[in-house]
Amino acid sequence: MRHSENPPGALGRMSRRGFLRGTSAATAGLAALETAIATAGEAAAAEPPILGPDPVFLTLRVNGAARTVAVEPRTTLAEALRGPLDLTGTKIGCDRGACSACTVLLDGAPVASCSLLALDVGDRAVTTIEGLAGKDALHPVQAAFIAHDAMQCGFCTPGQALSAAALLERNRQPTADDVKHALSGHYCRCGTYTHVTEAVLAAAQVRRS
């Protein structure tokens, strides 16, 4: 007859060593759970607040002035400029960031304002075509566009002028290829690309002199 491996009643008893092992495992599990809960709480606290669908107030630095507007969180910078800020020099063409008609300067760099949410601008400085000229005179690029007939319908001109101005800020003596590269993303419905290049080169010469 085969004897049981455990003596009678062994399954109902727990040794001191087994008890301590079980207690240690439970304590470690509880500590891990508390750590996980604390980590989840910290992550939730670090997440930005959910905005919308109601309009929110934000302040944009546009053309050297702080402007506070109320916009829906989905509002693009182009829409905010043309709508509540009434800066209609910024044009919306494709509304997909492909034609560059909506180009503005963000901290001096050209960006497609139709592809940037107004809420994401933050404290960066926005320059539109209305802010490119000085108080008493046109910007050299604007004057050169007029002198060299670099526009026809004028729809794409504001974006081109801003990209050209940004180019001259970083390159005082650009070549024709430099100009073409800087304006390569701009779609001109009237096909005045040659005159635009001539105008930008002329503006560069004016700035150097």
Spell out the blueprint of helices and strands.
Layout: H1 16-46, E1 56-62, E2 65-71, H2 77-82, E3 103-106, E4 109-112, E5 125-127, H3 140-147, H4 157-170, H5 176-182, H6 193-208
Helix pairs in contact: 3-4, 3-6, 4-6
Task: Kindly describe this structure.
The protein is an alpha+beta fold and 209 residues long. It has 2 domains: 50-131, Beta-grasp domain (Ubiquitin-like (UB roll), Roll), CATH 3.10.20.30; 132-209, [2Fe-2S]-binding domain (DNA polymerase, domain 1, Orthogonal Bundle), CATH 1.10.150.120. The protein has 6 helices and 5 strands; from the N terminus they run αββαβββαααα. A 5-stranded mixed beta sheet has the order 2-1-5-3-4, covered by helices on one side. Helix 3 crosses helix 4 (157-170), helix 3 packs across helix 6 and helix 4 (157-170) packs parallel to helix 6 (193-208). The mean pLDDT is 88.
Q: What's the shape? A: elongated
Number of folding domains?
A: 2
**Radius of gyration over alpha carbons?**
32 Å
Task: Name the CATH architecture of the largest domain.
Answer: Roll
- Tell me which oligomeric state these chains represent: single chain
Q: For the residues shown, what is the average pLDDT? A: 88
Helix coverage percent of residues?
25-40%
Q: From the helix content, strand content and strand pairing, which structural class follows?
A: alpha+beta
Under CATH, the topology of the largest domain is which?
Ubiquitin-like (UB roll)
**Unreliable residue stretches:** none
Q: Tell me the name of the CATH class of the largest domain.
A: Alpha Beta
Sketch the topology as an H/E string, one letter per element: HEEHEEEHHHH
Topology, number of strands? 5
Estimate the strand proportion.
5-15%
CATH superfamily placement of the largest domain:
Beta-grasp domain
Number of helices, where a helix is a run of at least 4 consecutive DSSP H or I residues = 6
Largest sheet: 5 strands, mixed
Cα end-to-end separation? 114 Å
- Sheet with the most strands: spatial strand order: 2-1-5-3-4
